[in-house]
Amino acid sequence: MKLLMAVVPADEAAKTVEAMIEAGFRVTRIATTGGWLRRENTTLLSGIEDEQLEQALDVLRRRGVTAMQSGSHSAGGAAVPATGRGIVFVMDVERFEHY
Length: 99
What we know:
Largest sheet: 5 strands, mixed
Distance between the termini: 16 Å
Shape: globular
Number of domains: 1
Strand content: 35-45%
Oligomer: single chain
CATH class: Alpha Beta
Structural class: alpha+beta
Number of strands: 7
């Protein structure tokens, strides 16, 4: 299982959530500020099965969100994507339950 944590510009969040839901993914939306994008942004959380990872990332890529990968360039010691209107972290999850 994976947890996708996507940080997107606040003005892109609604369309990104809509695209994820249309593709069959559940999404939790949290208003956040600062950090990666240095402006008002929204953090999206989505728990997915391993075999759904590429499909979910494709939805996010079409919205301009870039996945963090080892080998991304570094700025001030922190890896950042070269392009995109947001960033997504992919984390392994031992377990999640949905009610």
